[in-house]
Specification:
Layout (H helix, E strand, L loop, with lengths): L9 E4 L5 H12 L3 E6 L2 H12 L3 E6 L5 H15 L4 E4 L14 H26 L6 E6 L12 H16 L1 H4 L4 E8 L2 E2 L9 H8 L6 E2 H11 L11 E4 L3 H4 L6
Parallel strand pairs: 1-2, 1-4, 2-3, 4-5, 5-6, 6-9, 7-8
Helix pairs in contact: 1-8, 3-4, 4-5
Length: 255
């Protein structure tokens, strides 16, 4: 549904060249927001922004969301271009599977740099701007069901996602006085460009998800838009799981 719910709202979103991030950016733009869409892949960023620009306002910003200087520059670009920042979405993340006993320090550091450090400093930069604005703003972190339930070979990834939810909870104390809300969403199995390349993905997750199918990117984006909309302004420090009921039963896809 197209509305003016986000009219005159300025948004930055990282890692949005495809998948869930792209759909969140697209839905924000068609509902009135001005969107700065980041991706580390220049072609993906430009192609994604071009597609969205047919439906709303969207500009590509190419860069590494784990780089603190880039993240600060992304927020500065939003303010320089539009004069404010209303919504920040830390969507960029990386999944590096690996046996815990064999996991390499460089792999752990890579996951930590993007999933945690990149998200932390986007929140810091965005909130620093938002606290100057009487209207404050909304911040959304991208967690995962792996931050709630064990998943084989994803110990490092799951650790970072659980940490992001604690970050959202902790920052309520510091951000609420400035009218800034911060929440997280935790998607479960979702059909994206990456997962549909696995021929067994849809079948396996349809079998073990109580609702009978994995999520679409629109399912996740719909929840994300609620969490950053005026309808949720009294919700902060929370994490919303979107998984078709999987975490209630948690069968492993490997069994």
């Amino acid at each position: 549904m197209v509305t003016n719910l986000f009219k005159d709202q300025v948004t930055v979103i990282t890692g949005a060249g495809q998948g869930i991030g792209f759909e969140i950016a697209r839905q924000l733009a068609i509902n009135g927001a001005s969107v700065l869409l980041n991706d580390i892949d220049e072609n993906l960023a430009k192609q994604a922004a071009a597609k969205i620009s047919n439906q709303g306002i969207c500009y590509p910003v190419v860069g590494d969301a784990s780089d603190v200087n880039f993240i600060r520059g992304l927020v500065d670009e939003a303010v320089n271009r539009f004069g404010k920042l209303n919504i920040a979405i830390a969507n960029a993340g990386i999944t590096l599977y690996g046996d815990f006993f064999e996991y390499k320090p460089e792999a752990l550091q890579q996951v930590m740099n993007l999933n945690l450090s990149g998200s932390f400093f986007l929140v810091q930069a965005a909130a620093t701007q938002m606290k100057k604005q009487p209207a404050g703003g909304s911040i959304l972190l991208m967690s995962s069901v792996t931050g709630h339930q064990a998943h084989r070979n994803l110990s490092a990834y799951g650790m970072t996602k659980a940490a992001l939810e604690m970050l959202a909870k902790t920052l309520v104390i510091e951000l609420s006085p400035f009218n800034i809300s911060i929440n997280a969403i935790a998607p479960g199995a979702t059909k994206t460009e990456r997962t549909i390349s696995d021929p067994g993905y849809d079948k396996i997750w349809s079998q073990i998800t109580p609702i009978g199918k994995p999520a679409t990117v629109a399912d996740i984006a719909n929840a994300a838009l609620f969490m950053i909309s005026p309808a949720s302004r009294h919700i902060t420090g929370q994490s919303l799981i979107i998984d078709g009921g999987w975490t209630s039963v948690s069968p492993s896809p490997y069994d």
